[in-house]
C-alpha cells in the first residue's frame, strides 16, 4: 500500500520516473514502479 501511495504522489506531481525512487528500499520501489505502470495505462 505504501508503494502505491508513493506512485500516486509521483503521478500527481507529474513524475513518470521519479529520481527519488532510488533512495527507497527494494520492496516499496517495486510497488512504486508497478503502481506507476498501472497509472500510465
UniProtKB/TrEMBL annotation:
This is Uncharacterized protein.
Amino acid at each position: 500500500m505504501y508503494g502505491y501511495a508513493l506512485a500516486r504522489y509521483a503521478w500527481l506531481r507529474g513524475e513518470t520516473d521519479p529520481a527519488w525512487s532510488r533512495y527507497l528500499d527494494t520492496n516499496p520501489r517495486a510497488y512504486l514502479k508497478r503502481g506507476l505502470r498501472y497509472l500510465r495505462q
